[in-house]
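Researcher: Predict the fold of Autotransporter domain-containing protein.
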Amino acid sequence: MNLSTTCKKAYLAIAISSVISSWVSCSYAVDLEPITELTVNTTISSEDRVYNDSGHAVDLSGSGTTKTLTNNGIIQSDNDTTIRLTDGKKLNIAGSGSIIGGIVNSEKIALDARGEGDTLGSGKVVFKFDSGAMVSGNIYFNPGSESQLTTSNDSTLTFDGKLIDGVEKIRLREGSNLILSAQNESINFNFDGINDSGGFFVEGSTITLSIGEGLDKDDAILIVNDLIEFSSVDEKNSSLVVTGDITESIGTKVLIQAEQIEGFSEDMVTSSGLFLSVSNVQLSESDSHDSITADVSYNEGVTADDFSAMASAGGADATEASVIKSFADIALDGTEITSTTISFNSSHNEEIANLLNGATDEVSASRLAGELTPDRSGAIIQAIHTSQNLQLDDIDNRVSLIRSGQESTGFWFGIDGYQGEKDVDSRIDGYDINGFSTRFGIDKKYSEEGLTGIAASINRQEVETKVYDTNYTIDSFQLSLYGNLNFDKYFISNSINAGYNAFNSTRKIGESTGYNGEVEATGDFSAYNIGWRITTGLDYNIGDVSIQPLVSGELNYLFIQNYTESGSPASLEYDKETLSQVKIGAGINISRQIKLESGKLIPSFTAMGWHDFNASERDINTNSITTPSTGIDINTATGASKNRFNAQAAINYKANHDSAIGITLGHQVEENYSDTMFNLEYRHNF
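Model: Structure tokens for Autotransporter domain-containing protein follow.
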């Protein structure tokens, strides 16, 4: 069961719902009502949030069979425990989403299963986290309920809290990483100690320990009141990674204090990033507890090339390696480093250094390099082209109907909904695009041989990239002038289009590597597009069938200006970017008139193939906001493929009076990209 019926976005649904009411159920991501009953296994989608601003977001009680709540979105409360379980309730909680605790007596609590007063606590609760999951707030299990917290293989879980209490067992499975966000006091894992098999088991996985500002030098980052056992799985060793704010991390640190530590060796401990170095790792044993300590110092010999090399070793391409090196150059510019001190040239340099310090290994460095690099998917260009192509294709189809005598001039109005997808290509990101447009125009014959018209459209598109968390919202306005001339069987038509496009963008930088600063770069910029399409061909009429072979040429010019991001210390800007296209196309339009008593039915089919002679990669000279004098050369994808193929099937009904309606279904294919379009159109002839 899904808590809501969702589509990727609502645009296609909005368009089609004008014709098919059942599609109305697709909607924008929404805040869902609190969950107070769970009779079947339930999933919260990645675009939804279960939210309560004054009470529990999830409040379940009563015995019965165990159900699973899969959270791929957000569960959140503001002023109460987010998830409360009572009266023997058994529950499995899974998924890759976030649980954000509410404030209770100045304490942030994500889950409470203890019961209170005469209210009994829960039954067995099992957390099983998938990669990307996050819990913000303390967790209270019901002691003695055999509750557990586990991770999936190769997953990352971020715990931003100070306490996990009453748990029987915590297991970090092979390849997983538990990131403990920095706190101003020790983080405590309190096990119930009832079952001898309980404890904290680190199985070929990693614990990332963040040193918090204000943590006393004698206090452990993590305190475990039971056994913690490290082991290897399939040659994967367990490890401890030490991280934190660069200026707060130096000195001798107590990493873990536990009742008993087994399977640990000194070589398991490494530093996070290239700015820090760990040495003198020791396991100390006493009658009351065991402790792991280490000396954290600065790496005096770190260079920008080190970041580039580490990212490249993790799979980053030349562009990404160059970008992370450029940011490292900024961080190190004027920075003085000794083993115990570091002095930055500016606060911006320090912010970038802390961001880069999240690159703890080759994999995370490669990921961070990709996040630092501006989006290379070509989504910006594709969104603009889609708005213009829909406009020009609509005009071509209308002129074809008029030219064949199957339609008359007048006013026309249409709406389009479309969904597209571009595949990931090596290190170049892919994306999903969803759009909705309203289109209208008017045309008139000025002679038997010619017509002229004007058309306009308003478009809204949403783009989400697949690998790196980059999103765009694009509002476009397109305006076209068009005309057609007939010469016996020959014809020539012209369309001139101009458009304005307003972009809002968000780009996540450093969230995946645990950066504690601002992780979102937000952009606000605009673009202009100009296009000219000329089409010529022949009219063949065989009975009630019209056949029109077509040849088209198209010139396009695109200008993006004032691309500016803010927020993240790695925000970027550039003044302008231009792109031109020279395209030629060929295809065919086939239509037929079927006469009815009330009018005529006109099914049609159009297929076109296009080749762009100018499709190529291009460079953008990009500047870091923090250091405007630093230029970064970015080699990006254009979003304009060399070859494009599109086909449209339509059916139009023209009544005996002066009105007509039409429905069109279209599909477009480019290199690694395809989209599907649905169009509904109304026309009034005069």
